Write the C-alpha cells for this entry.
Amino acid sequence: MKRVLVVDDEERIQEVVQACLEILYGWQVYTASSGTEALEQAKAHQPDAILLDVSMPEMDGITLLQQLRSNPATAKIPVILLTAKSHSLNQLEASDKISGKVSGLITKPFEPLKLAEQIMAILE
C-alpha cells in the first residue's frame, strides 16, 4: 500500500486528495497544514511520496523542501510540488533551489480522479 503525505494549508485540498487516494486507490494518506507539521509527519511515517503545496504561510513549500532534503531521515522521499501558479512553473522548474530536488509538478486545479495516476506516472 502506498503512503502519501499531503501538505497544504487549504483543508479542502487535503480532503479532496485524501478521499481520492484512499477511496479509489486504497492508499494511506497523511495530511499536514504547515511545514513544521509536515516535517514531523514525514519523519514519523516515511511516506512513499510527499505532495507539497508551494504557497503556504509560515514556511513555504520551497523552504520545507530544502529542510526535507537536508535531513537524512527524509532526504530520499520523492516530493511532488503542487502549485496554483501555472504561470510560474517555468520559474519553479528552472529554480536552483529545487533543481534536482523534486520528482514532479502538478498544477491546481487538478482533476481529482486522475491525481493518483499523475502521482504514479511521476514516481515511476
Residues 3-113 form a domain with the Rossmann fold fold (CATH 3.40.50.2300). The chain has one domain: 3-113. The beta strands are 3-7, 28-32, 49-53, 79-83, 104-107.
